[in-house]
Amino acid sequence: MLHDILYGDGVLWVSIRVAATLLVTVLTTRVFRVLWRKFSANKIHQKFAKNVISIFIWLLGIFVTINWLPPFADAATALLAGSGLIILAVGLAAQETLGNMFSGLFISMFKPFEVGDRVILTNSDITGFIEDISLRHTVIRTLTNSRIIVPNSIMNKELIENANFCNLRAANFIDIIITYDSDFIKACKIIESVIGGHPHFIDNRTDEQKQTDAKVPVFVRSLGLHGIELRASMWTETIANNFAACSDVRKDILIEFANENIRFSSTKVLDVFLQEKHKKA
Question: What are phi and psi of 126, to 5 degrees?
Answer without folding.
Answer: -115, 130
